[in-house]
Automatic annotation (TrEMBL), chain A:
Leucine-binding protein domain segment(s): 24-386
Family under the similarity heading: Belongs to the leucine-binding protein family.
Gene3D superfamilies, sorted: 3.40.50.2300
The protein's name in its UniProt record: ABC transporter permease
TrEMBL record, chain B:
Record bears the keyword Transmembrane: yes
Spans through the membrane: 27-49, 56-74, 103-123, 130-148, 236-259, 271-296, 316-335
Membrane topology: Multi-pass membrane protein
GO CC annotation: plasma membrane
Protein name: Branched-chain amino acid ABC transporter permease
GO MF entries: branched-chain amino acid transmembrane transporter activity
Compartment(s) where it occurs, according to its Swiss-Prot or TrEMBL record: Cell membrane
Taxonomic source organism: Paracoccus salipaludis
Keyword Transmembrane applies: yes
InterPro entries: ABC_transp_permease, LivM-like
Record keywords, A-Z: Cell membrane, Membrane, Transmembrane, Transmembrane helix
PANTHER family referenced in this protein's UniProt entry, alphabetically: ABC TRANSPORTER PERMEASE PROTEIN, HIGH-AFFINITY BRANCHED-CHAIN AMINO ACID TRANSPORT SYSTEM PERMEASE
Top-rank taxon, per record: Bacteria
Length: 427, 358
């Protein structure tokens, strides 16, 4: 019996190995578990963008793009299994869509020579390309997000945060802990008091945290949450009658699924975003013709235009532009992961290019280099309109405070380089 | 006809009480070891190591440890995840503080530290048992994970609160860190798994194991015949935690390479290992391996069949996987409440009689 079982396992695994052809961009998604509602939309956006390229243009440079999916359930062990099971299939680039999995994979992709793109998440100091050769995090990272939020709060408070208190409600994981360092520096610079309030994942239960907020009445609350934690936080904020416009989330706490459960009470909730909102872009007409109407949309096209969908689509767009650049540089359409890395490092997405893609103003211009793997890191602030059930952009792109961020990133990257005996490149 | 005691003469007490009384079993055991040590390291791929064999061996060690406590000692524990975290963080602190000492020694030391922590949290078992003890160990689970999240000293003040395994070598071969080869990972885990299984087998059939089982079966009677409940229970907690600590250390340093207390060592891990023990069979060494194989290999197998071979959507496959594994657990527990080990035992009994069952 054991032998037969082993034989069956072996057979199934052999059958699971995909053919070595085309451009493979594994989609490490999660559609189940406490983060599934958000992960679902993101994965659909990611798939649909490549489906559009395959359907309309026949892929990139004549090569179809495959996006084999692997369910990670936002769990690092499953993420590692997904990485191992897909890397043999000629994967060009990874977008693990989880900060925890990113931390696991940074050493692995560096050893295996496969680039990794972590737009808006992952390890912030990966922006320093001289240390993190294989990791990219444009257009923005967590520290950019924190800085943009604080700049917006400065604007709201007429440029002065002295004596104010800001509470950070965060997912007690690598993701949620990321902004603490930046916010501590910013609190010194701007003179506000920072209170840290951790929420243990997955975070359905936040009664005590919000009672603390009701008692201490911080002037602003910054929310670094994900998945079911966001819904619970916004609902609890409404329950303790915390003024919604003073609650501001990172981009991962800025989706429709996060605010809709609280209904009208969520009106006025703000979050930062690094991409445009809504479907008011010519791109969606193309998507409708080639993907939605032909029935090829991932997940049946239920989430098109939603905030998380847009972010997934944007991640795919950055990868697709990277592939295009890599093909140009390599002079061949069938690129290797190493050539893909060169392509990402030379990536340039101008405003004109975004307009050409049918998404004018959807994202900021991105220009990467050997030193800079993270772009400029600008963000906009969006606000939820509960009656229209829409996000509205209330600011233009805000530049983060590089004066504070750059030394922090350099220090963290240097520490990583020292720990792992990496010689900085780019000299 | 092959599977017979007949002709296999035992001429000493030593022979009579050996682990595998049948010749075929003995041969099977040696062949398995020979394949595991002599063949698999040369053919293993990254995928087989990281998705199947390494987690199987590590969870087998954890299940062995928990089986000593629950199956042999009769003490319920829901703190496995927390104790694995102790092993992982102890290895991390030791290997970053004393980089010149071999990682393998650190892993064993981490097991020792976990044993001390386990004994401390096992103290309530002298006063309470059953569900009450389960709650006390549950407290250990939550306390330990909270501690490793709260006190930055444990994760060397890293910004993300993650611990990352540094690169370490053993006799010139890299055994931890990203550059580790599949066979090195596998061999390290295999040596620990086989060594600890050997220790467990010999402990459980010796004085220590008999004391544990006496306490398990009836603690008052055991006390009357001269078993000291303090030493018996504490030694069960110590040995069990040692195994679990080593499993946690291997999980972090050899398998994952980076870990986060609340995510990697949460309450789910405690339940997973407890399920392995229950499905595999309480009070059985083979059962610990069988349970670990069942819960590690089956999900991977199902995923590859449903997504890889049949091409179903990943979310549907993930949900089905949970349902199938859950249904199989219920099925096994109804059909064979004593676990896979009992099934195996029955099979062997029948084979001995076959083809003349009467």
């Amino acid at each position: 019996m054991k032998l037969r079982f082993a034989a069956a396992v072996a057979a199934a695994m052999l059958a699971a190995a995909p053919a070595l052809a085309d451009l493979t961009v594994p989609n490490l998604s999660y559609r189940t578990g406490p983060y599934g509602a958000n992960g679902n939309q993101y994965a659909d956006g990611f798939n649909d963008y490549f489906t559009l390229l395959n359907e309309r243009d026949g892929g990139i440079g004549g090569q179809k793009v495959l996006t084999p999916e692997c369910e990670t359930a936002y769990n690092t062990e499953k993420g590692v299994e997904c990485y191992e099971s897909t890397k043999g299939s000629g994967a060009l680039v990874y977008n693990p869509f989880s900060t925890g999995i990113t931390y696991q994979l940074i050493p692995k992709v560096s050893a295996d020579g496969i680039p990794m793109l972590t737009p808006g998440y992952g390890r912030t100091s990966a922006k320093d390309g001289s240390v993190f050769q294989w990791v990219f995090n444009p257009p923005a990272n967590y520290w950019d997000g924190a800085s943009v939020i604080v700049k917006h709060l400065l604007d709201v408070n007429n440029g002065d945060l002295k004596g104010k208190t800001i509470a950070l409600v965060y997912h007690n994981s690598a993701f949620g802990k990321e902004p603490i360092r930046t916010l501590e520096e910013l609190s010194k610079k701007h003179g506000f008091t920072l209170t840290q309030i951790p929420v243990d994942p997955p975070g359905q239960e936040q009664k005590s945290q919000w009672l603390q907020i009701r008692r201490e009445k911080p002037d602003h609350v910054i929310l670094y949450g994900w998945g079911v934690m966001n819904q619970a936080a916004i609902q609890e904020a409404a329950n303790v009658r915390y003024p919604m416009e003073n609650l501001i989330g990172i981009w991962w706490a800025g989706g429709e699924v996060d605010v809709e459960p609280a209904g009208a009470a969520a009106n006025g909730y703000k979050s930062v975003t690094f991409n445009g909102v809504g479907m008011d872009y010519p791109f969606y007409d193309e998507l409708k013709t080639h993907v939605l109407d032909t029935g090829k949309a991932s997940g049946g096209g239920a989430h098109v235009g939603k905030a998380m969908y847009s972010r997934g689509m944007y991640a795919a767009l950055v990868i697709a532009e990277g592939i295009k650049k890599a093909q140009e540089l390599a002079g061949t359409a069938e690129i290797t992961p190493a050539q893909m890395r060169d392509g990402l490092e030379a990536l340039e997405i101008t405003e004109a290019r975004m307009a050409e893609l049918g998404l004018p103003g959807f994202g900021q211009p991105i220009q990467l280099s050997c030193q800079n793997h993270g772009g400029t890191g600008m963000g906009m602030i969006q606000q939820w309109d509960a009656s229209a059930k829409q996000w509205k952009l209330i600011t233009d792109f805000i530049q983060p405070d590089e004066e504070v961020l750059a030394p922090l990133i350099q220090a963290d990257a240097q520490a990583f380089a020292a720990e792992n005996a990496i010689q900085p490149r780019c000299n | 006809m092959l599977y017979r005691e007949a002709g296999d003469f035992k001429t000493s007490y030593r022979d009579d009480s050996q682990t595998f009384p049948l010749k075929l079993d003995r041969m099977g055991y040696w062949v398995t070891l020979a394949v595991a040590f002599g063949v698999i390291p040369f053919v293993i791929t990254d995928y087989w190591a990281n998705a199947v064999l390494v987690p199987f061996l590590i969870y087998a060690i954890a299940a062995l440890g928990l089986n000593i406590l629950v199956g042999y000692g009769g003490q319920v524990s829901l703190g496995t995840g927390g104790f694995m975290a102790v092993g992982a963080y102890a290895t991390y602190k030791l290997s970053t503080a004393f980089p010149e000492i071999s990682l393998l020694i650190h892993i064993l030391l981490a097991g020792g530290i976990t044993a001390a922590v386990g004994v401390f949290f096992g103290l309530p078992s002298l006063r309470i048992k059953g569900f009450y003890l389960a709650v006390a160990t549950l407290a250990a689970q939550f306390f330990l994970v909270w501690l490793f999240n709260k006190v930055p000293w444990f994760y060397n003040y890293s910004a993300s609160g993650q611990i990352t395994a540094p690169e370490r070598t053993f006799m010139g071969y890299v055994i931890s860190g990203p550059a580790t080869s599949a066979s090195a990972k596998y061999l390290v885990c295999l040596v620990f798994a086989v060594g600890l299984a050997w220790v467990a087998r010999n402990l459980t059939r010796g004085t220590a194991g008999r004391k544990w089982m006496a306490i398990r079966d009836m603690d008052i009677a055991a006390e009357i015949i001269g078993v000291n409940p303090l030493t018996a229970k504490m030694s069960a907690f110590a040995v069990s935690s040692f195994f679990i600590g080593v499993a946690g250390a291997l999980l972090f340093s050899i398998y994952l390479g980076a870990a986060e207390a609340s995510e990697t060592f949460g309450i789910n891990k405690s339940f997973l290992v407890l399920f392995m023990v229950i499905i595999g069979g309480l009070g059985s060494i083979f059962g610990s391996f069988a349970g670990a194989a069942f819960l590690v290999v089956l999900p991977v197998f199902l995923k590859n069949v449903l997504v890889g071979a049949l091409g179903w959507p990943t979310d549907l496959a993930a949900h089905l996987e949970l349902m199938i594994v859950g249904a199989l657990i219920v099925f096994f527990l109804i059909v064979e409440p004593h676990g896979l080990a009992q099934l195996w035992r029955l099979t062997k009994e029948k084979l001995r009689l076959w083809p003349f069952p009467h």
